[in-house]
Amino acid sequence: MSFSSKILKWYGQNKRSLPWRNSIDPYRIWLSEIILQQTRVAQGTPYYLSFLEAFPTVDDMAKAKEEEVLKLWQGLGYYSRARNLHATAKIIVNEYNSVFPDSYNELLKLKGVGDYTASAISSICFNEAKAVVDGNVYRVLARYFGVDIPINSSKGIQYFKSLAQKVMDVEHIRDYNQAIMEFGAIQCSPKKPLCLHCPLSESCVALQKGLVGQLPVKIRKVKVRDRYFNYLVPIYKDEKGDVFTSLQKRNAKGIWQNLWEFPLLETSANMNLQEINTKYHDIFGDLGKVEILSYHDRPIVHKLSHQNLHTSFWILNTTVDIPFKVKVQNIEQYPVPVLIADFMKAFKF
Predict the structure, then answer these.
(1) Model pLDDT, residue 165
(2) Taking the CB of residue 326, how many other CB atoms lie within 10 A of it?
(3) Does residue 196 sit in helix, strand or coil?
(4) Average pLDDT taken over every residue of the chain
(5) Residue 305 pLDDT level (bands cut at 50, 70, 90)
(6) pLDDT exceeds cutoff 80 at 230
(7) What secondary structure does DSSP assign to 156-177, as a single string?
(8) Which of 25, 28, 86, 162 is the most exposed place for a label (fewest CB within 10 A)?
(9) Domain ranges of the chain
(10) Residue 147, C-beta contacts closer than 8 angstroms, at least 6 positions apart
């Protein structure tokens, strides 16, 4: 039995029941694939269902405001995916008359759609013979064939794509692509793969040579950067008794673009209370008599893929009207980074 036949047989016996699995609707497959990039299935599934409920069709998503899409996406991270999702929905509606392109090459033209996503949609929805290569596939192929070429090198990307095309089952491409990804997620997992009960064990090079834990190979390219965030959280009560704080939109490119946050002082190191007392004027101007409190004993370290955010929240109680003000009762309506969302849940305004 061939490599692809064993993968397909395993899939028939072990595949998970997932909400997008019995569909070949390109909108649903596209939505699931974008959500599952950099996201585990268990985490992504509730988001997928929420998006379908809010936007049953690509037209519904295209009509939505970007903030609605970002709010639903809140907590998934890599927010450029959400912005691209919304932009692509508009493109599908306006340039393709609400009909998804039915080929790999046309799908590649869409914003946020690369080789993997185009291969997944074209094969699952339109039965096009394009092999998918994601993290799970890299792992299965690298281990089974004993390939130590770094998967994130230009040579590795080309090599594994070519290898994936050679070993795929063309006649059953729709199921095969889902099968090899599922196999990598469950059977040939990154840690503690189930090698003893693997249908590929007899011919797996990595297993035979004791290289399972060393493959696939990945070059570490990204140097982690330390950044120091000081969020200023003003609290102001007007004559009517309404309580306000301040929120600003991150318009600059970079992390959390178009999400909202409290006014931010980014510095080269952690700040103390005295330093905050002299710097908050840069954002708010004169607030009169202000009581400043530190919300945490020490900064929270929020880790992203390429940077560590050393974050402090400073509470500014004031009797002077504040800029960028938002009613406290409305702040949950704004799409915010998970770091801000966690603070909002914990802090009692």
Answers:
(1) 97
(2) 17
(3) helix
(4) 94
(5) confident
(6) yes
(7) HHHHHHHHHHHHS-GGGHHHHH
(8) 162
(9) 3-214, 225-346
(10) 141, 159, 160, 163, 215, 216
User: What is the separation, in whole angstroms, between the first and last Cα of the chain?
Assistant: 64
**What's CA 130's distance to the chain center, in Å?**
24
User: Is the pLDDT assigned to residue 349 strictly greater than 90?
Assistant: no
Residue with tokens 């089952």: 169
Encoding tokens for residue 297?
Answer: 């004993």
- Name the percent of the chain lying above pLDDT 90: 89
Q: Which residues are catalytic?
A: 33
Of the candidates 308, 312, 311, the residue with the CA atom closest to the CA atom of residue 294: 312
Cβ contacts of residue 111 below 8 Å, gap of 6+?
Answer: 84, 87, 88, 91
What pLDDT score was predicted for residue 152? 93
Which parts of 23-153 fold into alpha helices (H)?
Answer: 26-36, 41-54, 58-63, 66-73, 80-95, 104-107, 115-126, 135-145
Tokens of residue 281, six digits: 């004027």
Say how far apart CA 324 and CA 314 lie, in whole Å.
17
Q: What are the CB-based long-range contacts (under 8 Å, 24+) for 47-52?
A: 47/72, 47/73, 47/76, 48/19, 48/20, 49/19, 52/19, 52/28
Listing DSSP states for 237-261 in one string gives E-TT--EEEE-EE--SSSTTTT-EE
Q: How far is CA 101 from the centre of its chain?
A: 24
Q: How many residues does the chain have?
A: 349
The predicted-structure confidence for 257-275, as pLDDT tens digits, reads as follows: 999 999 999 999 999 999 9
Report, at the CATH architecture level, how domain 3-214 is classified.
Orthogonal Bundle (1.10)
| pLDDT per residue as tens digits for the range 136-180 | 999 999 999 999 999 999 999 999 999 999 999 999 999 999 999
What CATH architecture is 225-346?
Alpha-Beta Complex (3.90)
